[in-house]
Amino acid sequence: MKPSVKTITVRMLLTVILLAALIMTIIIGLSFRSLSHKIVKNQAIAVSELVKAGITSHMKAGIMDKRDYFLNEIRSLNKIEDMKVIRSQFVIDQFGPGFGGESDRDPLINSALKTKEPQFVLDEFVFYPSIRTVIPFIASKEGSLSCLNCHKVKEGTVLGAVDIKMDLSEYRNDAMWIIGAILGLSVMFVIMIIINTFKTVQQHVKAPLEHLIDKAREAYSGHKPVEEDLFESLEFENVAKEINLFNDDIVKSHLLLEEKNKELSELNDEIEDTLKETIFTMGIIEEQKSKETKNHTRRVSEYCKLLAKKSGLSNEEVEIVGSAAPLHDIGKIGISDYILLKKGPLTEEEQEIMKRHTSMGYAMLIHSKRSILQAAAIISHQHHEKWNGSGYPQGLKGEDIHIYGRIAAVADVFDALSTRRPYKEPWTTEKIINHFEDSSGNHFDPSLVDILFNNLKEFMEIGKKYNIDFEEPKHLLHKFDKTKAELIYEI
């Protein structure tokens, strides 16, 4: 499932803000660490200056033996873990090694005495962080406490150093609190930005977009423009204008398409009518060639339509069957006139030639993609098939015979029996009925015979309309049994 605009916006904004917050936190942390280091170093230097001043004062006052009291007071400061004064070799040569430890040295002290620069060792990544500072004392005549008054050395000579170790736990804890407060404020700031962005996107993007979509649908379905003043932002107003332009084009195209569809539909209807008329004309041509009774093609077509309708076929199929029926004997065009017009019975060989008209008609029509001609191909091929499988050309049986073929068989035989042919006179209505009753389930689909019997009056009316003089009893009653059709005449 694709994310919403709000989700995408908040996700991207959150990524940028968190990255920026992380970078800012790192910068602030490093800056604060650097500042803390500077403060600690300055404090250590300040303490060393205090010690230097105190020792120089003791020396000038001649109470150097009392200096430990002063130094112990300095050591008692909360942040100082340890402190000692180291004498340089010049001072040792002049005044001796001093009290215990004043001549002890390590590499850090030696480095400070040699370079004359303060030395710092910061141990901050432990549970109790600390800093050790070694500050060298440089002989100087400046100020009221000139070292050169007591020491017989040149100005700039290293007289010693103050070695101080300070506890940084309080500084670190303060730093952690400050950094934590900065992070907390940053988180609050990020949350506020996200909430504000979420509301902004909802109010000025998502809601207007959904509203615009709804209005666009209404505009399209109602063929009316979207009200551009409904939107606060310039972008959505411009989109509304574009939608209105687009809808105008769509409406114009839709109207043009409707017009073209109407023209196409009329043209298609004209083509269909032309096709039907052509098919019917072809049936008439075949009818004339075969010397069929006048209006044979018309009657068979109407009979087929009535049978198809009563069989429950759709209106479309009823029209297809009725339009295709005129071509049921189109294959007879390929049969010799000698056989078609012969008055006497056909020989066995002539009968086989006559049977070929079904396959000939099928071959003429099967290649078309049009539904009417496809139906005509089926009817031409199968209207001489019999329900019991004794028909031709394929010997199909039962419902293997297409419903179009079964309908055409009933219609064609009904018309053939009720009209004069070169080889016979028209049958009486009673004789036709008896024939269909005897042939039901053998030659014809029983259900179609039942339809014929149940709607005989309508079939007779079609025949009368197209030049068949059916016998009309004074009273014609019939009853239908699902297993057998019976007609009972009462005169």
Which value, in Å, is the CA radius of gyration?
59 Å
Report the uncertain regions. Answer: 473-491
Order of helices and strands, N to C? HHEHHEEEHHHHHHHHHHHEE
CATH-derived architecture of the largest domain: Orthogonal Bundle
**CATH homologous superfamily classification of the largest domain:** Hypothetical protein af1432
**Structural class category:** alpha+beta
Q: How many distinct folded domains?
A: 2
What share of residues is helical?
Answer: 55-70%
Largest sheet, if any?
4 strands, antiparallel
Separation of termini?
80 Å
- Strands, total number: 6
CATH topology of the largest domain: Hypothetical protein af1432
Total count of helical runs of at least 4 residues: 15
What's a quick, concise take on this entry?
The chain is an alpha+beta fold. It contains 15 helices and 6 strands.
Q: Can you put this structure into words, describing what you see?
A:
- With 491 residues, this protein is an alpha+beta fold.
- The protein folds into 2 domains: 5-176, Beta-Lactamase; 290-489, Hypothetical protein af1432 (Orthogonal Bundle), CATH 1.10.3210.10.
- The chain has helices at residues 5-61, 67-75, 89-95, 107-115, 169-222, 234-289, 296-310, 315-324, 337-340, 348-365, 371-382, 403-418, 429-439, 446-454, 456-465, and strands at 80-87, 119-123, 130-138, 158-167, 476-481, 484-489.
- The strands form 2 sheets. Strands 1-4-3-2 form a 4-stranded antiparallel β-sheet, sandwiched between helices. Strands 5-6 form a two-stranded antiparallel ribbon.
- A hairpin with a 6-residue loop joins strand 2 and strand 3.
- The two termini are 80 Å apart.
